[in-house]
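Researcher: We're teaching a course module on how sequence relates to structure. For the next exercise, students receive a sequence and then see the predicted structure as tokens, so they can try to spot secondary structure elements on their own. Here is the exercise chain.
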Amino acid sequence: MRSFPILLFTLSFFHSEGQSVDKEKQLDVLIVTDDRKFNREAFFAMFDSFDNIQWCEISQSEVLNLFGSDSIKYYDALVFYDMPENVVLSEEQKENMLRFFEEGASAVFLHHSLLSYREWDKFSDIIGGRYYNKTPLITPDGDTIQSAFQHDVHYKVHIADKEHPVTRGMDDFKILDETYKNYVVNSDVEVLLTTDHPSSGTVIGWVNTYGNSQIVYLINGHSESAYDNPDYRQLLHNAINWVGSGKK
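Model: And here is the predicted structure for the students to work with:
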């Protein structure tokens, strides 16, 4: 498996080897990653299995520059699989990112992207929640919220909204994945997925509205046990299609 560089100025795109796509139905997707180690072959094989998607990979540091350019408008959807916890954004970078989402972005955030930009409170308004990794949240009542995770948990994903295009036609399914607990989910998100496993928070997938954007967040996706799960693949494919095709 190989990934492809993004050409910011020529706006050229590439497709993965062996993939045949009907161009009238194809979506051009930009996948944002960072230095976190993960099974790249298994992860990108998941996207290769989506027959109407062509993808490029870009680093988290590079995409910050893209937010302020017209080049990003070329892509039908962005998928964020990065986790820039300690990155300090400049005021210009913050303004560019906020403008991008306010104007109407097509974006899916996965798993550890909930930990991103923990020094910037506004990011939780974009993604719809927050994981408090190293620095806990002290509530106005003096309570402490410290998020936690657990590897390799077998649990059931419950489809909370069976009418939404992201989940329509899907049934509850089981998955082996990392769980998160004690994270914050904004009260105004549209809940798509839940679980009752004790090592996890209840809400594990949602749609968040920010400006003119409707953003999908899916908590699953830590490793190949999730990438290879056919139900998770269907869920992710649905989410990309929904945000990337005018949310029809």
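Model: If you want an answer key for the exercise: The radius of gyration is 17 Å. The helical segments are 40-48, 60-66, 91-104, 123-127, 224-227, 230-244.
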